[in-house]
Structures are given as C-alpha cells and as structure tokens.
C-alpha cells in the first residue's frame, strides 16, 4: 500500500497517505488534515473511522477546541459530560441525604457555584450537608435551600424525573446551558430517568452510572459538511471524499483467555469441540489451545476485513495514521496485521507542538444579579395531591423500601436481620435521623404482623413448588422491552400461582387510596406472569403488612 501524494483528481482510486505520528499528537495531526482538505475543497466530505469507540476521546476534545462540527451516531456516551454529571449529582443528592460527594457536586454546579471555602464550611461537623446548608445566610444559598426544600416535599408525590427536572429548572439550570447540544443532553438525561424512576435499583449505588453508560449524545448540528465519525463496522456501504483512519497501532483487548471455548465442526458427521480454561497448575491443554488458536485466527481475519471496509470508503484521499516504533507493532492491531507490507511506506511526521491552552479554571456560576432578579417562590402544594398521597410520605416510602429488602431476606435466606442493620440501610437510603426511630418501629411492627398472620407467613415462606422474590420479568412490545419486578411470586401445592405486592401504608384509612393507585400496576404484573404461565390460575393482589390486610384483585 504505497504512500501517494495528495491528488483529488485521481480516478483509479483514492490517494493513500501513510503517516507515522506520535500518539500524543495524533489528534492535532487529524485537525491539520481536515483543515488542509477543506482549504483544497471546501465542500469535500470527511469521515474519521475507528476500530473502537474507546480510541475517540482525545480526537473529540480537539475537534471541539478547534470548533470543527462533527456528527456521530451512538459514538459518544454522555457519562462524563459536565452537564450530565451535574444532573446526576442533583438526582443523587435528592435521593440520598447522606451522599456528601453528591451534595457538594450539586452545590458546585453553575446554578449555585459555591466556593471552596463554602464547601469546607458546609462539609464540616457531624451534621449532613443539607442540615448545614439550611443555616446559610447568603442569598445564593438561601435560594438553593428554598428550591431543594420544595423538592423534598414533592418526593413521593411526583416521579423522580419530574422532581429533578423541575428542581433543575428552578435552580436556574436552563440559564446555564451553553448551546443546543447541552439542551439535548439534558433532555436525554430526563428521558433516561423517566424510564427507570419506578425501579427500586435507582436508590442503589452505581445504578444511575450504569444507565448513563448506555446514554449516547444525539447530533445537534445540522451542518451538511460536518465531519462524520463512526466505527469501521458502521461505515460499510458508505463513501466519503476523505477518510482518516487514526490509531491503527491500537488494539482491543479481546484476546484474553475465555472460560469456555467451543466449536462446531461438520466433516463426515457433525460434532462439537468443547474445552474449559485450563487449571492454574496445568501447563497445556491441547484441545483448549487449539480452539483458542482458531478463535484468534478468526479475530485476525475479522480485523483485516474491517480494515478493507474502511480503506474502500475513500473516494479521493485516504489517511492511515499510526505510531510506528522500531520494533514490530502488536499483532492484534490493524497495523500489526499488515506490517510486512507497509513497514517502509510510512512517512514520519514531526510531533506537533500543542497549542498552549490556559488551564486556569474560573468558577462558572450564575451571577449574583440573577439571584436578586429571580426570587424563588415555591408553588403551593395541591391539596388534592396531598390528600391522595398522604400515605406515601417520604419517610414511609423509604421505610417501605427497607421492608422489601427484609422480606426478601426472610424468603431467600430465612433471616430478617437486626434493627441495627435496618438502621444502616435506612441511612444509605437517605432517611433523616429525626425519622429513624419511627421508621424502625413500623418496620418491626410490619415484620411481626406478617409473620404472625397466617396468610402473611405463607407469603414469606419459601416452602412452595416454585418460589421467587424480587423477580424480574421482561417482555417485548414491538421494538421496545419492558421490565417489571415482582415483590413475591410463588406456586403453591394447589397449583395456584400467587402474585403479591407489598405496600407499607401508615394509616389504615389510606388503604383504599393505595389500592386505587396500584391496581393498574398489579394487573400489568399479572399480564407478565400469565404470559409465561398461561395455563395456571393466578391470584394477584396487594398485601399491607401493618394492617395484615390482603386485597385480592
């Protein structure tokens, strides 16, 4: 693959430019290539094709710094975007009062922007940051306290996504957006939050971060000449005037030993080769080593196929960039596969001297004049909503989450734990200390009542033909998948499948309200169960542990 001089009039094929660049200056070299190509032909289409998305971060940062528009489908996750991190901190702060990092991150965000000295003051002492914050005297922090206080009152009365969005807007989040892309990022975050706000895992550590790994940045630019960025695999069938292939010396770590290898063969008759990973004290396993060699051969051929796809996307110019060292590159990389053919074809490019960027970071926050002009007046709570949701006060809601965990332990492990463990779990959920004793008391009463109740004891028992606790089911509706988690489901010896949803209601008078609110949900659960157990009778309903009350739908 000889290197050729750039010539946009080539008709026999694209001009190939093999450039040996230092990995630290590769992104700058890409910027130089793009600018040079646009000077020669302002309307040329340009694409950057990569083997893996993990090779992209520095390139995207450099494109943004040089104000070069780009587009890519599912190419950049939102996980590390500043706005998303701020929204994540706000969400976790509202859900967990004791999450000091979340609270400090939320208060450092542009809608508040506390100083380092204020952070130190708020985080000192035995009290939570929220408790210290309520003693603040500055207008900026008093406004934050008013907004967060209103949000706390809404917990249990509205869905988490609605609470976070309205709180963010009240804090001045919309005024902190820097461009249209940021607005799309915020919308994507709230959409993700809406999809998971009914799942109990939202209160567990790391759950939201895991969901953000699946959240990709949507294109905000409408520039028809934006640089296209995609993986080599997705480029199949497309063509561009200029194609840039960076990081050919990089490789993905797919060659780690697998726990189990298998291969189906068909000579005179079909048979299956199967081998487990060898033990640590075994030096060699001929069958496993052979299957491992076969798998590596397939991966090598797939690497060459991807490279062929990528190189044939170029109409005029093809740029192959690689960090070329004295020794042969890793055989798992693209350049390693073709090294004997191109070893003398790469032109050394002197490392670019990076542009000096001022890394001094000033505190970004809304100006004081904005707070003076936008006094916060929380909307009065709707009396009807309070009446409907009085049974779902926040401390009761958190006690209910802890009770579900205890019931799961009883059913699956045969133990309920000690109150000190319940207290620790409630702290992790963010229950304020002033509600702790009340929460422990009603949990203790709920556990005692259920175990003493004949029907309740049956629900907690694992002595059934089939038994499930916190059972996750998934069904497909068109192109979408829907998940539910059943508190309790079991098949008794009368061949009846019971579906039980535990509800912790503090006041007996609120049971009917809770039944009305959750009946549609139970019917949906019943549909899920009926789909996998179509010929079995199902009894579905709500169980209220404090009142020993079973409501069969």
Which features does this protein show?
553 residues; alpha/beta; PCRA, domain 4; Lambda Exonuclease, Chain A; seven-stranded parallel β-sheet; 17% strand; disordered N terminus
Shape label: globular
* Number of separate helices: 19
- Class from secondary-structure proportions: alpha/beta
The strand count comes to 14
What do these coordinates show?
With 553 residues, the protein is α/β, with parallel strands linked by helices. Among the domains are: 82-212, PCRA, domain 4, CATH 1.10.486; 383-553, Lambda Exonuclease, Chain A, CATH 3.90.320.10. The protein is built from 19 helices and 14 strands. It has helices at 26-40, 57-65, 82-95, 100-108, 116-122, 129-133, 139-154, 160-171, 180-196, 207-212, 286-311, 334-342, 368-373, 383-389, 394-413, 419-429, 436-452, 454-460, 511-532; strands at 15-20, 46-50, 70-71, 227-231, 240-245, 260-266, 270-276, 314-322, 347-348, 466-477, 480-491, 496-502, 537-544, 549-552. The strands form 3 sheets. A 7-stranded parallel β-sheet has the order 3-4-2-5-8-1-9, covered by helices on one side. Strands 10-11-12-13-14 form a 5-stranded mixed β-sheet, sandwiched between helices. Helix 1 (26-40) packs across helix 2 and helix 7 packs antiparallel against helix 8. Mean pLDDT is 82; it is low at 1-12 and 380-392.
């Amino acid at each position: 693959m000889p290197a050729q001089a750039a010539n946009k009039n080539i008709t026999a094929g694209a001009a190939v430019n093999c450039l040996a660049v230092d990995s630290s200056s590769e992104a700058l070299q890409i910027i130089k290539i793009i600018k040079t190509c646009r000077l020669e032909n302002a309307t040329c289409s340009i694409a950057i094709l990569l083997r893996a998305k993990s090779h992209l971060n520095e390139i995207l940062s450099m494109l943004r710094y040089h104000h070069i528009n780009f587009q890519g489908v599912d190419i950049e996750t939102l996980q590390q975007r500043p706005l998303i991190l701020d929204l994540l901190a706000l969400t976790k702060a509202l859900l967990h009062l004791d999450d000091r990092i979340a609270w400090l991150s939320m208060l450092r965000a542009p809608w508040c922007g506390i100083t380092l000295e204020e952070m130190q003051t708020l985080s000192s002492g035995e009290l939570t940051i929220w408790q210290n914050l309520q003693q603040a005297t500055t207008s900026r922090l008093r406004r934050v306290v008013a907004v967060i206080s209103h949000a706390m009152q809404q917990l249990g009365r509205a869905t988490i996504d609605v609470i976070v969005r309205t709180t963010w807007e009240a804090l001045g989040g919309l005024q902190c957006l820097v461009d249209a892309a940021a607005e799309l990022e915020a919308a994507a975050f709230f959409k993700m939050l809406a999809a998971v706000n009914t799942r109990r895992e939202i209160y567990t550590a790391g759950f939201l971060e895991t969901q953000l790994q699946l959240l990709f940045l949507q294109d905000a630019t409408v520039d028809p000449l934006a640089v296209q960025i995609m993986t080599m695999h997705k480029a199949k069938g497309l063509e561009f005037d200029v194609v840039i292939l960076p990081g050919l010396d990089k490789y993905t770590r797919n060659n780690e030993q697998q726990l189990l290898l298998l291969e189906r063969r068909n000579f005179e008759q079909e048979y299956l080769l199967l081998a487990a990973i060898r033990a640590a004290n075994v030096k060699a396993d001929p069958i496993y080593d052979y299957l491992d060699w076969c798998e590596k051969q397939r991966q090598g051929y797939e690497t060459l196929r991807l490279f062929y796809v990528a190189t044939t996307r170029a109409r005029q110019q093809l740029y192959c960039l690689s960090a070329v060292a004295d020794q042969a590159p890793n055989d798992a990389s693209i350049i390693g596969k073709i090294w004997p053919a191109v070893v003398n074809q790469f032109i050394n490019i002197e490392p670019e001297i990076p542009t000096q960027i001022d890394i001094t970071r000033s505190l970004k926050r809304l100006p004081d004049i904005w707070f003076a002009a936008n006094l916060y007046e929380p909307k009065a709570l709707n009396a009807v909503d309070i009446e409907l949701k009085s049974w779902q006060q926040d401390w009761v809601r958190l006690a209910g989450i802890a009770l579900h965990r205890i019931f799961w332990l009883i059913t699956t492990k045969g133990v309920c734990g000690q109150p000190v463990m319940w207290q620790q779990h409630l702290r992790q959920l963010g229950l304020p200390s002033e509600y702790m004793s009340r929460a422990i008391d009603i949990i203790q009463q709920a556990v005692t009542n259920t175990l003493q109740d004949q029907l309740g004891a049956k629900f907690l028992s694992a002595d059934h033909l089939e038994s499930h606790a916190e059972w996750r089911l998934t069904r497909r509706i068109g192109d979408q998948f829907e998940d539910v988690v059943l508190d309790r489901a079991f098949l008794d010896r009368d061949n009846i499948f019971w579906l039980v949803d535990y509800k912790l209601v503090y006041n007996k008078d609120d049971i009917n309200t809770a039944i009305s609110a959750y009946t549609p949900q139970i019917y949906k659960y019943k549909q899920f169960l009926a789909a996998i157990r179509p010929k079995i009778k199902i009894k579905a309903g709500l169980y209220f542990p404090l009142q020993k009350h079973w409501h069969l739908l």
